[in-house]
Amino acid sequence: MDNPLLEAAAGGLPAFDSIRPEHVEPALEATLAANRAAIEQVLSNARAGKTGFETLILPLEEAGDRLHRMWSPVGHLHAVANTPALREAFNRCLPQLARYQTEVAQNVELYRLFEAVAGTVPATRTDGARRLLDHALRDFRLAGVALPDEQKQRFMEIMEALAGKQALFEQNLLDAMAAWSHHETDAARLAGLPGRMLERAAQAASAAGKAGWLFHLDQPTYVAVLTHAEDRGLRALLHRAWATRASDQTPSPAAVDNSLLMDEILALRHEAAALVGFANFAEYSLATKMASSVQEVRDFLERLVAASREAAGREFGELEGFAGHALEPWDMAFYSEKLRQRKFAIAEEELRPYFPLPRVLDGLFALVHRLYGLRLEADEAVAVWHPSARYFRVLDADGHQVGGLYTDFYTRPEKRSGAWMDDAISRKRLDGRLQLPVAHLVCNFAPPAAGRPSLLSHDEVLTLFHEMGHTLHHLLTRIDYPSVGGISGVPWDAVELPSQFMEGFAWEPEILAMISGHHESGEPLPAALVERLRASRVFQGGMQMLRQIEFALFDLRIHAEYAPGGDSRIMPLLAEVRKAVAVVPAAPYDRFPHGFSHIFGGGYAAGYYSYKWAEVLSADAYAAFEEEGVLNPAPAARFRHEILEVGGSRDIGEAFMAFRGRAPDIAALLRHSGITAAAGDTGNHAA
Ligand SMILES: [Zn+2]
User: How far is the CA of 419 from the centre of ligand 1 (A)?
Assistant: First the structure.
């Protein structure tokens, strides 16, 4: 075999230093052919009367894992070491991959086979097999595989139409933004704006053959103007441009109005959900999530509103008092930033020297050792894709290896932005041989420069802890079936539990002492800075909470209350939600839904509540450590055993109960957000 991707598919760590773009397509073709043959073999065994989970399902797990091992290095290199040739090979492969996935999802005979096997595996089986079957059957049904032919045809049409309309929603938004610009010649109006942004605007003007400054409508520009521009009129101008994007309001061009498209998207989602047996799209969305019903989510969000409104009102009053006049929507960010500076006087640049990456990483590894007994050992012999990338063997307290970890910390032009954890290799024991899990932990920190290490902001420290939380979830799994091990099969509204949980540690004075050390003097973060940092954490916690809940309630209700044939009530419903939730004013021209990509562009439809849901879980899980001691190995052992080890094999509500001894409670999140919960207002949300 001279294709390193096919070698990776067969087992072992990928030879990252010898994978070439020309390996990608042949490897995928060979792997898909092998998988199609494996599926055919399983189906023919079933036709011949063979039965049982081990005989019929494990070969399919094996096939899924083979494809994952082959494709994972390609996806990874595409994200961190992109080249035009690789991108071209990658894009050529996507349709083949999609075709294969549809083929499997729509295979009725395969669905019947899973149904038959499911009938033979008892609900009491706890190794994940039962859950694997339940998830597979659920996903088959949600994809419409069991429908009569005519309805199935319609379901597929709807899915295709939805994909097109959601993409058009995004396109309209981009076109609306591209259509707007503001040419400014009066330097006095630019007071307060950051220098880097002004440079960009001056370059844009001169590129367009103009004097002065030219502003385009993009998020960094919008945020910078609303936060920093002293000129109230300039802030109002940008606010109107942003809040009316792709709507029926000026200055957005009428040709890119998303109004009708939103109605169509809601109608199609409702019809698809009804075809596969749900009362509305919100119920369809919740079928794969931890939350069990629309009512449960709505009660959950409304309980958070009730607990947060007073604090938010107080924060708004404080801000208005500070500004000295009534606040308009375009004043909020501006005065908030000024007030934040006044109260905490904390500048990111002041903190960075105390967080050199090597020191933070040593501290984080030490924390992971204290909590779980794990040790990370660098192995320089393992092939990587860039000189700064590294591989670590992860050893358990008894010295046995539990997995591996690749790290890639620094930003580069050929690397995607952001930070993430990715499943490089899944834990698997299908034929008695154990395959250890391996993770990618990727960030985009500034590289070391001029003889000093990479210096992190506290936000970046949080990011690193967050991704380490996902990493441990992936590496500490004890489940032998890849599709329900680690983060696989974990419901979307719970998958951020282990990651956000890990962030909690990066706020503790004793952990800050472990992970900080001035890059010149070695001095840990001074106590006064620790205090100010911790105080800044809860700034405007009530208002931020309500803003997220406003989005979440709107998203949930617009999908749950949709009535076919009627008006989709987008703006009236938003007004209703705002009246019940918001403490800050909204402009009459504001068309927030028309730019709400999270839900109308896809992904988060009837799922935006997941952010808050997972935050309640992670805050409450972390509170166990606050109660028992943040470096106490006892809650850590419980957390590892009940939550991290079970991956997606166990109902997450049950897992949480087992860890905490009770259902999740909103009290910890309210406390971490600086909101004082009223007595008796801390009921369980998942009871
Ligand atoms: Zn995350």
Answer: 9
